[in-house]
Amino acid sequence: MDTAVEKTIEPITLAAGEGEALWSFGVLATIKASGDTTGGRVAVVEHLAPKGAGSPLHIHHREDEWFYVMSGEVTFWVGGKVFKAPAGSFVYGPRGIPHTFMVTSDEARFLLVTEPGGFEAFMRKAGQPAPRLTVPPADTPMPPPERLGAIAAEYGIEIIGPPGIPG
């Protein structure tokens, strides 16, 4: 074990509402732990999202991703299977597996965790700092699809379809 690396990683303690807040993909995303703060091991991002918010259909080539739904309901499409995930549900998407999600309740709060960390840098680049701790207004701009695809590619993410659950 490399003790020099261990000494550079500090404990993280954040209360509700604390962390770096972004408006990204139509959600309030609060970074609780990043690759920078965990020595690259993990990223933890809390999402507060309105009905209809979700991600494009995509594949991670660098990290595994998992979700834990804390409130509301989120529908996931992972590897061709649909899963309705109410509060208390867990979904794991290993790297290389196509997936997407969409909030199906009026609002949902969930954790998104990636291992290793680094995915939060993509969210920063595709989003913007949140001026307040609320869901972004519906008219908050997102990068156009071609720009989003280029940003995603920088982070080992391949966008293969639009937002929404494939039919």
Description of the structure:
This protein has 167 residues and is mainly β. The chain has a single domain, classed as Jelly Rolls (Sandwich), CATH 2.60.120.10. 14% of the residues lie in helices and 43% in strands. It has helices at residues 3-8, 119-126, 145-154; strands spanning 20-24, 27-33, 43-50, 56-60, 64-71, 73-78, 81-86, 90-93, 99-103, 107-115, 128-129, 157-163. The strands form three sheets. The protein has a seven-stranded antiparallel sheet, covered by helices on one side. The protein has a three-stranded antiparallel sheet with strand order 7-6-9, with no helix packed on it. A hairpin with a 2-residue loop joins strand 1 and strand 2 (27-33). The longest helix has 10 residues, at 145-154. The protein is globular. The termini are far apart. The model has no long low-confidence stretch (mean pLDDT 94).
